[in-house]
Amino acid sequence: MEPKPVEASDREELRELQSERLRETVAHAYENVPFYRETLDEMGLSPDDIDGVEDITKLPMTRKEDFRDEYPDGLFAVDDEEVARIHASSGTTGKPKIVSYTDDDLDVWSEVVARSLAASGAEEGGTVQNAYGYGLFTGGLGLHYGVEELGATVIPVGSGGTQRQVELMTDLESDVFTCTPSYALYLAETAEEMGYDPRELPISTIIFGAEPCTDPMREEIEERLDVDGIDIYGLSEIIGPGVSCECHEAQNGLHIWEDHFYPEVVDPRTGEPVEEGEEGELVLTTLTKEALPVLRYRTGDLTTLNYEECECGRTMVRMDNVTGRADDLLIVRGVNLYPSEIEHVVLDIDGVAPHYRIDLDKENNLDVMELTIECEEDLDRSKQSLEKEIAERLSNVLQFTPDELNLVDHGEIGRSEVGKVQRVYDHRN
Ligand SMILES: [Zn+2]
Question: Domain 1-325 carries which CATH code?
Answer without folding.
Answer: 3.40.50.12780
